[in-house]
Amino acid sequence: MRGRLPALLVTVAGASSMMFCWVSAAVIALVTLRKGVGDGAWLLMWALLPAGLLLFYVGDSGPVAMLVGAMFLALVLRTTVSLSAAILASVAVGVVTGLAMLAFGSQLLDQLVVFFAEFLGNLEQQLSQGNAEAVVLNHPTALQVAGMLGAVSAVSSVMCLLLARYWQAALYNPGGFGEEFRAMLLSPAVTVALVLPALGIFALGVEYQTWAMILMVPLTFAGLALVHARAKQRGRGTGWLTGFYLAWLILDPVKLVVVVAAIADSWIGFRQRWAKQASED
Known about the structure:
By secondary structure, the protein is mainly α. It folds into 2 domains: 1-182; 186-281, no CATH class. The chain has helices at residues 4-15, 21-35, 37-57, 62-80, 83-88, 90-104, 106-128, 142-172, 176-182, 188-202, 209-234, 238-250, 252-268, 270-280. It is globular.
């Protein structure tokens, strides 16, 4: 925020590393939100140089997808001034990333398919020891891996956008990010537009289930926003939220409950009911 040179140094340094490219993506999103599209695009252009080298020599398209995805979501947020709309745009990021991998990343997909096959094969041998029947696990195909990478790209782009928004609020509007995130809500029409196609894709078979996950990304973040709103309303601290996130990461049923809660919230409006109950109490 002090000038182009500090932003350029941080952005290029982060984009040069697969481990810290998320810093560059968040910086680009922050500059786009605060300074405008021109400055954000200028940083993105320079960041794509080291990220492109990683793609060319290592074959990892993750940094490029993260940089472009975060920039795109920041543009949507700056244009619409709606965090819900920006997170909804992550579906486009995930779908485009997955399709691009199918079209241009066949070599990387094949490498990942071989990696998963070897890993799951070793796991099958370990699980089959001492069992009467051999354990057989589902080995992902290139189509599944492409959908998984698309979902990862959508999630990482949203995370970088949220980090940039947090930085922006910390600098210019302390406490504003928490209020904005806790108030995030998807409309009933949007939830229907996400759930119905997701169910249809899921019903196509195992190969397409990872693609259905892309449509669940906005619902997941809307559900997490609802959890934060409930924690704030109940006076829960960071310890409670930390425990929740640990359970969310480890237990799949918790992930499903979060998505279902987001769908129900869009129709019922839990926050308004909680606020009304609190005022009555």
